[in-house]
Amino acid sequence: MTEQLTPMPEDWQRALAVVAHPDDLEYGCAGAIAQWTDAGREVVYLLATRGEAGIDTLEPDKCAPLREQEQLASAAVVGVETVEFLDYKDGVIEYGTALRRDIAAAIRRHKPELVITLNHHEAFGGRFLNTPDHRAVGQAAIDAVGDAGNRWIFPELGEQGLAPWGGVKWIAIAGSDTPTHAIDAEPGFERAVSSLLEHRAYIEALTDEDPEAYARGIITMTSGFVGDRFGGKPAIGFHVYER
Predict the structure, then answer these.
(1) Which of helix, strand or coil describes residue 17?
(2) Which pLDDT value is given to residue 198?
(3) Which one, 67, 141, 163, 189, has least CB within 10 Å?
(4) Would you state the pLDDT for residue 127?
(5) What is the pLDDT of residue 173?
(6) Are 112 and 16 a contacting pair, CB within 8 Å?
(7) What secondary structure letter does DSSP report for 101?
(8) By the 8 A CB rule, do 182 and 7 touch?
(9) Which long-range contacts (CB under 8 A, 24 or more apart) does 1-6 make?
(10) How buried is 19 (Cβ within 10 angstroms: 0-12 exposed, 13-18 middle, 19+ buried)?
(11) What is the pLDDT of residue 121?
């Protein structure tokens, strides 16, 4: 018998999603976010970069504002009104105290009960290598949750008026190879497709496939990964750590 995944926690009102690049949340996670905002919950996006190194045929200074606008449009599709950028350099993010501090500051500022980030391990699916940016940001987001609640770590944040926030109850890792929880993908499926499709310039540079067919195929594929462990229906999986 395949062990079934637990439904995602619902006892929360505010979430902060922390990722490295525009489009990171759209490859599978946005459908869950659409359902949460529909239910009246607040979700804020925090991106470490503006994705300026993501399109080979477009110089970074031209790429960054384009991808920023695509991300803002993409977030709006799933009901996210606040998108913040930390302006780290795309492709060369380093894990360290500066990154932890910036994420901790956002946690203190937005006071989420749920923090969402992306797979921070070496690979996806045990085969496809992960990027250094994903690994650095994912690990820093996990560590920053503890930093945000400790007044003696980054005391300068307190001096800036950002009081410690220890109210994060859960950390949810999207794209994990070891999911523990899931949410039904069907209610947010079409908006997940539309949200990914807002990254049209990125998709058109990535593939010759029709952008809508590509987006629909990606969301269909990712929502099928854990279906057999969630009642046999398409689902979005997360590895959830409880604090």
Answers:
(1) strand
(2) 98
(3) 163
(4) 84
(5) 98
(6) yes
(7) H
(8) yes
(9) 2/228, 2/229, 3/229, 4/229, 4/230, 4/231, 5/179, 5/180, 5/181, 5/182, 5/226, 5/229, 5/230, 5/235, 5/237, 6/180, 6/181, 6/182, 6/240
(10) buried
(11) 94
Query: Are residues 195 and 30 in contact, defined by beta-carbon separation less than 8 angstroms?
Result: yes
Please state, in angstroms and rounded to a whole number, the distance separating the CA atoms of residues 146 and 215: 36
Residue 59 makes CB contacts below 8 A (sequence gap 6+) with none
Q: How many residues does the chain have?
A: 243
**Residue ranges of the chain whose pLDDT lies below 70:** 1
CB count in 10 Å sphere of residue 166: 15
Residues 24 and 193: beta-carbon distance below 8 Å? no
Token duo for residue 91: 């492709």
Spatial separation of the C-alpha atoms in residues 62 and 50, rounded to whole Å: 11
Distance CA 200, CA 156 (A): 40
Contact 226, 237 (CB under 8 A): yes
What class, spelled out in words, does domain 6-242 have in CATH? alpha beta
pTM of structure: 0.97
Please give the pLDDT value at position 124: 87
- Tell me which amino acid residue 13 is: Q
> Which residue type occupies 31?
G
Give how far Cα 228 sits from Cα of 127, 223, 232, Å.
20, 11, 4
- For residue 128, the SS3 value is strand
What is the rounded distance in angstroms from the CA atom of residue 69 to the CA atom of residue 212? Answer: 19
DSSP annotation of 188: G
